[in-house]
Design a protein that fits this description.
This protein folds into 2 domains: 33 residues; 85 residues, Immunoglobulin-like (Sandwich), CATH 2.60.40.790. The chain is 16% helix and 33% strand. It is built from 1 helix and 8 strands. The strands form 2 sheets. Strands 1-6-5-4 form a 4-stranded mixed sheet, with no helix packed on it. A 4-stranded antiparallel sheet has the order 2-3-8-7, with no helix packed on it. The radius of gyration is 23 Å and the shape is elongated. The protein starts with 9 loop residues before the first helix and ends in a 14-residue tail after the last strand.
Length: 146
């Protein structure tokens, strides 16, 4: 005899919750599947106000043509490449702390935005991406009287 009396049995509710969690984890893994061990993740800040979401990535020393920004659904994907600097012919590195190689960062945005109105600018080593929010869409409700 079941101790829980609801429309949904208790175990079914737990199962549904776990299925939802697994779907979100699989979605996150899907977004990060291209991430290799040789990749770096550039530091990023994200903030929002009433009209927009702003992402700022630290990418010092990159050439603009080596930066790729893509929007996939509610996700912004940054890919960038900085080749390893070559030492002069007769010199060798004593210390090498700056990152090089492939840089990748995937960001799930917290609100709906207009992908056609995104503005990106790269200045002084910072890539600033501005995503204008979409205002709530009001759907008119009309009653039809017979």
């Amino acid at each position: 005899m079941s101790r829980f009396s609801g429309k949904k049995p208790f175990h079914q509710e737990i199962f549904s919750r776990h299925v939802g969690e697994m779907r979100s984890l699989l979605h996150a893994l899907e977004l990060h599947e291209a991430h290799d061990e040789g990749e770096n993740r550039p530091p990023m800040d994200m903030y929002e106000n009433s009209s927009e979401i702003v992402l700022e990535f630290d990418l010092p020393g990159f050439q603009l043509e080596d930066i790729c920004l893509a929007v996939r659904g509610m996700t912004v994907v940054l890919d960038a490449l900085r080749p390893r600097e070559q030492a002069e012919a007769q010199a060798s590195f004593v210390c090498l702390e700056r990152s090089h190689g492939r840089f990748h960062h995937t960001v799930q945005l917290p609100a709906s935005f207009n992908p056609n109105a995104i503005i990106a600018e790269y200045r002084r080593g910072v890539l600033r991406v501005v995503c204008p929010k979409v205002s709530d869409r009001n759907v008119p409700i009309k009653e039809i009287i017979d």
